[in-house]
Here is the input.
Amino acid sequence: MTMKRTRSKSTPVGKGRGLARSALLLMALTAALCAIGAALVMGGIVPQSAVPAASATALGVAALVTGAQAARQAGEKKLLWAMLPAACVLAALFVLSLIAFPHEQSAVPVTLVTAFPASALGCLLTMRKKHTYARHRR
Here is the structure.
């Protein structure tokens, strides 16, 4: 008898690739939305004082999208897998801020306040509630 080989989605390698893909998607979406915000500031449509709020909004929207995408791909522990891309981006932003601006204020609090709740919301939006139907007894 020969055994049939199947590919399981629960292998650590597959989930690691999905995590890396989600983290890169989060970074790319954040960069794209920040570029749109920068174009609006340079065009004079948005005042320069709104840049921190615009960047936090861009990070939140990108985290919402990638949290939903990661939760949809995860089989179990959807909330954990939705939060992991935000954690990877938090670590990357922390390291980059230490390298680029060693004596400046870190962007970690803004990332914590925007990315993690948005990722959780994205996860919650993808979860489906299982309907239970009452049996009618006669």
Summary: The chain has a mean pLDDT of 78.
